[in-house]
Design a protein that fits this description.
The structure holds three protein chains of three kinds. By secondary structure, chain A is of the alpha/beta class. Chain A contains eleven helices and twelve strands. The longest helix of chain A has 18 residues. In chain B, α7 links the parallel β7 and β8. Chain B is globular and about 65 Å long. The model of chain B has no long low-confidence stretch (mean pLDDT 90). In chain C, 72% of the residues lie in helices and 0% in strands. In chain C, α10 runs antiparallel to α11. Chain C is elongated, with a radius of gyration of 22 Å. Classes of the chains: A alpha/beta, B alpha/beta, C mainly alpha.
Chain lengths: 334, 321, 288
């Protein structure tokens, strides 16, 4: 029985805002197996970014507060650790990359230096004894490691790229470098928050393919946060659909796309203009995304649901396993 | 051809780089490099391409906001000039809903602006028209007294569309109209655009990097790469059988929501779209093209007729048959 | 994003009133403004003593119940003098700021919106004025025009506008790139109307915040110039001039130079806090 890399149990997060308390996450639970990719899919305001930040402990508190639940990484509940202990996990065990690499890279340092920094942090954290050999050998080793990490993310001409500044490179290259830096510390979990949303289609394909292949090469799992179901279908082993701060459906990827159970998932799928013949109209979901400030005791999707029943307006459905490895929070299937 | 609504011929929009004013080897950004496009009345034409291909500059040049360096833009056969006449017929919906609406103005005045500038309607007539068009785009009248900050992204984009159609133009340019929106909102807006087109007999020129959106909305597609058109054809034939290696790469890179055939993981495309300042010599796609040969590095392929109603700019288009 | 029923101004006021310092600044400014207007209307009538009249009290009398701020070397009531001088300093500051604001926005907008040669010309002019220290420039003009309140005001008006023009230009440039300006062009709106309906309303707030902060600076500079004797002439009371006139008494009758100086300081602090509060509210408003 292989240990799960990550287990999130009933994670809940609130934010203070000038307009009241926002329930960003409500009782979110999921598991991530080793060397697998789980995609968390949802539209803006569904809480997926808060989930990513909550797992890695980068939530600004304030305004985030009232963080409840468990985030168990390889058997350790990260939320019970103090700030300093949690910090040691960040970067070495759990790494994160974001949508805009240009803001994650320091504009005044060359790429080589920034990767070297990531490597140095890894070395000091894993408490490798300082090399007693002379500086020349050490810097040569680091140089080789930098080139190796650039090659790992399939950057051609690594020697050249090492000496460049971030602004000289394209978006796709920068994102690969972010991946290289994140993986330099050999984490077991990489959280990627909309990593390809700002990239061109052809570049996105390359980066997604790279990430998928690296899972086995580097022995890491990936939590991919995205609004794009099509992207999720391409690289995920498991997909979790979020709405209103909750997970409404989670299943293996083939299962989810062949038999989506939650009306929201079905709605999202029928929204995608792909391979659609002109005659067949897209069927958009009625209404608007819900306001997370409201505390409700009924299904958050009820106002927009084409299959809504009386029960849905008076009680909240729980996330239940209704088929093998397929959970859904909906009274249609309870 | 004579019945075309919009005829763009050999359009070039070059920007001079700063500091190169007096130098002989002045550097240009050849954003649009000899592009020809036709839009027939009542149809939708899509210009598809990735960043740096020049499609946004193309849109802005057609809207005469950017001065063309060479070539012609003809509306109903007449040369387009920055005039009320022109803008009564051509309007645009911009990409970013946040930047499209003046934050200090109420919605009513935002939508009324083209009527104030282009027509001689009275205030009462304008009010009536604005109220009517606001409902046409699926918003309620009480939105008229709000300011943009109080609206969601989807609502703002609807206001943008309302503003674009209120003066009853014949041609509406749409620059990535749904890229900044959530999936469910995107679907609503796409359907709205289709309905408005049927109702008002509009023609659309839609600029997008998303070929699925192009497929859904358009009759014809122009594929742009590095400032040039590399392929043109009817939407069905381009999607069914793309012939230019770039179009093939673009289509195969577009994620399809089908986990059983993971097209993305089989993609072999390399490199990235080139910089507009120093594009590759010869065929601009040659560094990334799996079929490239020596001639591709030196000679730019012309946009040739492949079959009836299909144009491709490639020396070795026979390889993709 | 989420629909919000609060109007833009109400929200701005609420954000502004969140800061305690901002409220303090507002209170101070209101106090002085009210005083200035009051004196401007009623003149000497409601003052405890005639500010120019000598020997209404003992010579160099210390602060007491009858003379809150004491009396000076000619037996004049210091409190009455200070209050009476309020409209002077504030009026000069306001007029200088107002003219700089208007001129700066006008020039900056044109430069930012059109660019090209006009922009270059404006930028070089501001460079020239920036190159010379404000005080020296003002003094030179005052010397040419001759001393006096109005002349000093003209001098300051001539040199105070460049930062406003630069700020307005930068903001106008930024706003000109926004899509709604392009949409306005494509709606047949003429350039003047675009400037007045789109550009200026969008650049007002940050420049207003700067202007409020700036008032304190003008007050100080003006006080310095009147200290040098370039502004009002005796016996008309003026804060800066009073500091000059009384500085010899710093040891023997310290209240004489200190009270006018403290009043200047309070006014400047009040405007600074107000300006900071406005600027913070502007930033908060753009973030949320």
């Amino acid at each position: 029985m292989v240990e799960n890399v990550l287990e999130v149990n009933d994670l809940s997060i609130d934010y203070d805002s000038s307009q009241g308390t926002v329930h960003a996450l409500e009782s979110v639970s999921l598991t991530i197996e080793p060397r697998s990719l789980i995609a968390v899919v949802g539209e803006s305001g569904c809480g997926k970014t808060s989930l990513g930040l909550g797992i890695i402990g980068l939530l600004p508190t304030p305004p985030a507060n009232n963080v409840r639940g468990k985030v168990i990484y390889k058997g350790v509940n990260l939320l019970e650790l103090d700030k300093e202990e949690f910090r040691r996990y960040r970067g070495t065990e759990i790494a994160m990359i974001f949508q805009e690499p240009i803001t994650s890279l320091n504009p005044v340092y060359k790429i080589g230096m920034q990767i070297a920094e990531a490597i140095a942090i890894r070395n000091s954290r894993k408490q490798r004894t300082p090399n007693s050999e002379d500086n020349g050998t050490k810097s040569r080793e680091i140089r080789e490691e930098i080139i190796a990490s650039l090659k790992m993310v399939r950057i051609p001409d690594a020697e050249n790229v090492m000496n460049r500044y971030p602004f000289e490179l394209s978006g796709g290259m920068r994102q690969r470098i972010m991946i290289a830096m994140a993986l330099a510390q050999k984490p077991s979990l990489l959280i990627a928050d909309e990593p390809t949303t700002a990239l061109d289609v052809t570049t996105q394909a390359q980066v997604l393919k790279l990430m998928h292949n690296l899972m086995d090469e580097v022995d890491t799992s990936i939590l991919l946060i995205t609004h794009d179901l099509a992207v999720a279908s391409q690289v995920a082993d498991k997909v979790a659909v979020m709405y209103g701060g909750q997970i409404v459906e989670v299943a293996e990827v083939n299962e989810l796309f062949s038999e989506p159970l939650h009306p929201y998932t079905q709605g999202l799928l029928s929204c995608i203009p792909s391979g659609t013949k002109r005659k067949a109209r897209l069927k958009p979901i009625q209404g608007n995304v819900m306001d997370l400030r409201e505390t409700v005791n009924y299904c958050k999707f009820a106002p927009r649901c084409p299959f809504v029943m009386d029960q849905c307006k008076t009680a909240k459905p729980n996330l239940l396993e209704v088929k093998a490895k397929h959970k859904v929070a909906c009274y249609l299937h309870a | 051809m004579h019945n075309s609504l919009l005829e763009v011929e050999n359009l070039k929009t070059y920007f001079t780089l700063r500091g190169s004013f007096l130098r002989k080897d002045a550097k240009y950004v050849k954003a649009v490099d000899s592009v020809s496009i036709t839009v027939d009345p009542g149809t939708t034409v899509a210009v598809v391409g990735e960043s740096g291909c020049g499609k946004t500059t193309l849109a802005r040049t057609i809207l005469l906001l950017t001065r063309p360096t060479a070539g012609s833009i003809k509306l109903f056969g007449k040369n387009g000039t920055r005039s009320k006449e022109y803008y009564k017929n051509v309007q645009m919906v911009f990409q970013d809903p946040d930047s499209s609406l003046d934050p200090t103005m109420v919605i009513r005045n935002i939508i009324a602006e083209p009527l104030k500038g282009l027509s001689s309607m009275t205030k009462e007539e304008i009010d009536i028209k604005v109220a009517k068009v606001v409902e046409e785009v699926g918003l309620s009248r009480d939105i008229l007294d709000r300011v943009p900050r109080q609206l969601s992204g989807g609502q703002k984009q609807r206001v943008s569309i309302a503003r674009a159609i209120v003066s009853e133009p014949k041609l509406v340019l749409l620059d990535e109209p749904t890229s900044a929106l959530d999936a469910s909102v995107q679907a609503q807006i796409l359907n709205l655009l289709m309905d408005l087109q049927t109702k008002h007999g509009l023609s659309y020129l839609i600029i997008t990097h998303n070929i699925s959106v192009a497929e859904y909305l358009s009759d014809k597609i122009y594929v742009m790469y590095a400032g040039k058109v590399v392929e043109y054809g009817s939407t069905e034939s381009i999607i069914a059988k793309p012939r230019h290696p770039y179009t093939i790469a673009l289509l195969s890179s577009t994620p399809v929501p089908d986990p059983k055939t993971r097209n993305l993981l089989n993609v072999e495309i390399v490199g990235e779209p080139p910089s507009s300042i120093k594009p590759p010599s010869g065929c601009r796609f040659h560094p990334r093209c799996p079929y490239a040969e020596e001639i591709c590095q030196t000679k730019e392929p012309a946009l040739d007729v492949l079959t009836d109603d299909r144009l491709v700019a490639c020396h070795f288009v026979n390889k993709t048959a | 994003m989420i629909s919000n029923k609060e109007s833009r101004y109400r929200r701005f006021v609420r954000l502004f009133l969140k800061g305690n310092q901002a409220k303090l600044g507002l209170a101070i400014v209101i106090l002085f403004l009210v005083t200035a207007v009051f004196i401007a209307i009623t003149g000497k009538s409601f003052l405890p003593y005639n500010p120019i009249e000598q020997d209404v009290g003992p010579v160099l009398g210390a602060p007491s119940a009858q003379h809150l701020f004491g009396t000076d070397n000619l037996g004049r009531d210091v409190f009455s003098r200070i209050v009476f001088a309020t409209p002077n300093d504030l009026a000069v500051s306001f007029i200088v700021i107002a003219s700089s604001f208007v001129l700066g926005i006008f020039l900056g907008c044109i430069a930012g919106f059109w660019g090209g040669l006009i922009d270059e010309m404006l930028m070089r002019s501001t460079d020239v004025i920036f190159a010379i220290p404000a005080l020296i420039l003002a003094m030179s003009i005052a010397v040419i025009l001759g001393p006096g309140l109005i002349h000093m005001m003209y001098a300051l008006m001539l040199i105070w506008w460049p930062p406003y023009a630069r700020l307005a230009r930068g903001e106008a440039l930024r706003i000109s790139q926004r899509n709604f300006v392009e949409a306005a062009k494509a709606s047949g709106i003429n350039t003047f109307k675009i400037l007045t309906t789109h550009i200026i309303p969008n650049i007002l707030t940050p420049i207003l915040a700067y202007a409020t902060l700036d008032i304190g600076t003008v007050v100080i500079v003006y006080a310095g110039l009147s200290y040098l004797g370039l502004s009002v002439q005796p016996p008309t009371p003026d804060w800066g001039a009073m500091v000059n006139a009384y500085q010899d008494y710093l040891v023997s009758a310290p209240w004489l130079p200190l009270f006018p100086a403290i009043v200047i300081a309070i006014v400047v602090i009040g405007f600074s806090l107000l300006g900071n509060g406005l600027r913070d509210a502007v930033e908060l408003q753009t973030i949320s």
